């Protein structure tokens, strides 16, 4: 379906023909995105469910393998003679997303994308399975939340300490996963010509008009204004 849509975009004689190809692929993508969302939700509800763990893993691998096709489609859409028509109907954000996709996806990082998905899934699972005893109750991170929001100050304090202790308990495993993920993402970014992963991540998250400098200014405002107000 992706290749067919790309081919139609390249050969379309009218904007309507190109537009129909765009919508046809979008409908198919909505179906696959829904399947992934269902699998992901059921996997996070019970991270010990091997079926949905395998389902998410398989979908992540297949999505990564489709990167060359996705890039072919994005290139056809970006270079379409009807680009201005798409922007007029859907706004400039559409083509910003397409242009960003061309910069952040490539068949050279397919293996890394598959590994990235595995690491994120493992990190999530190990975090979800971690438990601690708190006031006679076995709690995971989510179970501690209600105690962290208690009206009793001492209970909140104990819950926060339990939360920190829970992370300390599993930190060696999480640290190893996170460390590999950092190196992996840095390697992907440099393969695609970025100096750092941060530059690549801004495009992946759609921050086309929101720069690292903007983020630094926001952090500074939080530190100097919001934090001071909360302290008072």
Can you walk through the features of this model?
This protein is mainly α and 232 residues long. Helix content is 80%, strand content 3%. Helix 1 packs antiparallel against helix 2 (15-45), helix 3 packs antiparallel against helix 7 (110-129) and helix 4 (67-78) crosses helix 6 (92-104). The chain is globular. The model has no long low-confidence stretch (mean pLDDT 94).
Helices and strands in order:
Elements (H helix, E strand, L loop, with lengths): L1 H10 L3 H31 L4 H16 L1 H12 L4 H8 L1 H13 L5 H20 L2 E3 L2 E3 L1 H8 L4 H39 L5 H8 L7 H20 L1
Antiparallel strand pairs: 1-2
Helix pairs in contact: 1-2, 1-4, 2-3, 3-7, 4-6, 5-6, 7-9, 8-9, 9-10
Question: What key phrases describe this protein's structure?
Answer:
mainly alpha; 232 residues; 2 strands
Q: What is the strand content?
A: under 5%
By secondary-structure content and strand pairing, the structural class works out as: mainly alpha
Could you tell me how far the N terminus lies from the C terminus, measured between alpha carbons in angstroms? 58 Å
Strand order of the largest sheet: 1-2
Low-confidence stretches: none
The profile of the biggest β sheet is: 2 strands, antiparallel
Compose a concise summary of this entry.
With 232 residues, this protein is an all-alpha fold.
């Amino acid at each position: 379906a992706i290749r067919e849509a790309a081919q139609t975009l390249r050969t379309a004689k009218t904007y309507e023909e190109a537009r129909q190809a765009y919508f046809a692929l979008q409908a198919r993508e909505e179906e696959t995105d829904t399947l992934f969302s269902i699998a992901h939700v059921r996997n996070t509800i019970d991270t010990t469910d091997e079926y949905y763990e395998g389902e998410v893993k398989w979908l992540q691998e297949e999505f990564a393998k489709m990167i060359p096709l996705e890039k072919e489609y994005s290139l056809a859409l970006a270079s379409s003679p009807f680009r201005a028509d798409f922007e007029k109907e859907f706004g400039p954000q559409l083509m910003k997303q397409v242009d960003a996709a061309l910069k952040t996806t490539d068949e050279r990082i397919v293996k890394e994308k598959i590994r990235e998905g595995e690491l994120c899934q493992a990190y999530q699972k190990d975090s979800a399975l971690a438990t601690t005893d708190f006031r006679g109750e076995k709690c995971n991170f989510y179970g501690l939340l209600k105690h962290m929001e208690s009206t009793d100050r001492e209970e909140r304090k104990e819950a926060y300490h339990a939360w920190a202790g829970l992370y300390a308990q599993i930190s060696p495993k999480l640290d190893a996963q996170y460390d590999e993920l950092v190196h992996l993402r840095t390697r992907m970014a440099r393969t695609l010509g970025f100096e750092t992963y941060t530059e690549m991540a801004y495009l992946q998250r759609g921050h086309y008009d929101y720069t690292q400098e903007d983020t630094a200014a926001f952090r500074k405002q939080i530190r100097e204004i919001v934090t001071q107000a909360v302290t008072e």
